[in-house]
Structures are given as structure tokens and as C-alpha cells.
Amino acid sequence: MKILAISDEESKYLWEYFDKDKLKDIDLIISCGDLEPGYLSFLVTLCSAPVLYVHGNHDEKYDSKPPEGCICIEDRIYVYKGVRILGLGGSMRYSRGKYQYTEWQMKQRAAKLRLQLFRKRGFDILVTHAPAYELNDGRDLPHQGFQVFRKLIEKYRPKFFLHGHVHLTYGRGHKRYDKYCDTHIINVYERCVFEFEDENPPDSLSAP
Predict the structure, then answer these.
(1) Are 191 and 11 in contact (CB under 8 A)?
(2) Domain limits of the chain?
(3) Pairing mode of beta strands 183-187, 177-180
(4) How would you write 130-186 as a 3-class SS string?
(5) Cβ 177 vs Cβ 184: under 8 Å
(6) Are strands 76-80 and 83-88 parallel, antiparallel or unpaired?
(7) How far apart, in whole angstroms, are the C-alpha atoms of residue 86 and residue 190?
(8) Which long-range contacts (CB under 8 A, 24 or more apart) does 205-208 make?
(9) What three-state secondary structure class fits 72?
(10) Residue 120 burial by CB count (10 A; 0-12/13-18/19+): exposed, middle or buried?
């Protein structure tokens, strides 16, 4: 399965210079948040692949204008062609934003998923906006990752962990790719494409 993952900044390559052939081989699109709802609606309209999303910390506009034709996977395990995808959006709380959470609040969200995790026997892809704690996150509070994401990775060993929030343009040496336990971690800032079945994702990451 070829997956296009996007986050934080609309890709001019896709939006302003769109060509259907650029997405002809894409099986699934996953948004990790902080993108204009119209951008997601545009992609789902002109591509045959479904678009899944979680909220970023700046996505309160989704409440009044959600992306049309797209699927919100917040706080649930969504199964697509046998692939179990768990969504937990938002960032560390640093102001009064709706999609900001303390560590305790994010732990509570994860705890409410226990029944789903039991029934689905875990998950294959973890989709979040913020990174995991000390896994390519920032040391400032707004960009600090969640410890509970590390615990989910350690316990369920998903194949992939997708996040955004930490822009690769920040100049802090943040990486596109990392690995923790058995999980391949991808910072999907702007866009990247990967094969779910590929056992060597660092070599398969690309822009569409």
C-alpha cells in the first residue's frame, strides 16, 4: 500500500501545480494536522484514495468547516484494507487552544482506547500531530512530545508512527526519519510517500 502523509504546510507541488498523475498510485492519504480544510477536500476530490486526518493544534477552524469527504480518525482505530490506524491529534498544552492537551489528558484519551485496542489486537500505524517525548521533538513546551506515545509504541510495536508539528524548516536538526523499538517514525512535514509493506522505509521515502 502506497501512502501519502501530509502535515503543517500545504504542498505547492500538489495544490498549486496539481496533476492527477502525481497521485495515481496513491492508495491512502493521511493528514497529521495543521492544514487548511480546503486542501484536504481538494485532495479527496481529485484523487481516488480516501483522506484520513487528525487535528493539529491550529485546527479549530475544522469545527465550523471540516474538510468535506474526509474521515476524522481521532480517538479511534480505523481499519483500511486490513491496516489498523490509530489517531490521536493535538499538541502539548501551552495556551487555551481546543486541540492542546496536558500529558495527563493525552494519557486519559489513550486509556479510553483500551477496548478498541483489545478488540483490534493493537494497531499498525499511529497517527498523531505532536511527536513522542524525546523522539525528535522540541525542548520548548509547544513542541515537546508526549510520553504516552512512547508507551503505546513500546507496548504495541506498530510498524509506523506518523507525526507532524515539528517543522523540518525550524533548523534544529530535526529528522524526517527515525526508528524506536520496531517502529519506523516519520515526520511527515509538508508531504512524503512511503510503502506500508516496505521493510526498509528510509530508502523508500519520497515526495510524490
Answers:
(1) yes
(2) 2-204
(3) antiparallel
(4) CCECCCCCCCCHHHCCEHHHHHHHHHHCCCEEEECCCCHHHCCCCCCEEEECCEEEE
(5) yes
(6) antiparallel
(7) 20
(8) 205/176, 205/177, 207/13, 208/4, 208/13, 208/14, 208/22, 208/23, 208/26
(9) strand
(10) middle
Owner of C-alpha cell 493493537: 122
Query: What's the pTM?
Result: 0.92
Q: Is the distance from CB of 42 to CB of 82 less than 8 angstroms?
A: no
Cβ–Cβ under 8 Å, residues 75 and 46: no
User: For residues 30 and 127, what is the distance between their CA atoms, to the nearest angstrom?
Assistant: 8
Q: Among 188, 176, 177, 116, which residue's Cα sits nearest to residue 152? A: 116
The grid coordinates of residue 206 equal: 519520497
| CATH architecture type of domain 2-204 | 4-Layer Sandwich (3.60)
Task: Give the end-to-end CA distance of the chain in Å, rounded to a whole number.
Answer: 14
pLDDT string in tens for the chain (208-residue length): 999 999 999 998 888 877 778 898 999 999 999 999 999 999 998 888 999 999 999 999 999 999 999 999 999 999 999 999 999 999 999 998 999 999 999 999 999 999 999 999 999 999 999 999 999 888 889 899 999 999 999 999 999 999 999 887 766 667 889 999 999 999 999 999 999 985 555 555 555 5
Amino acid letter, 27? D
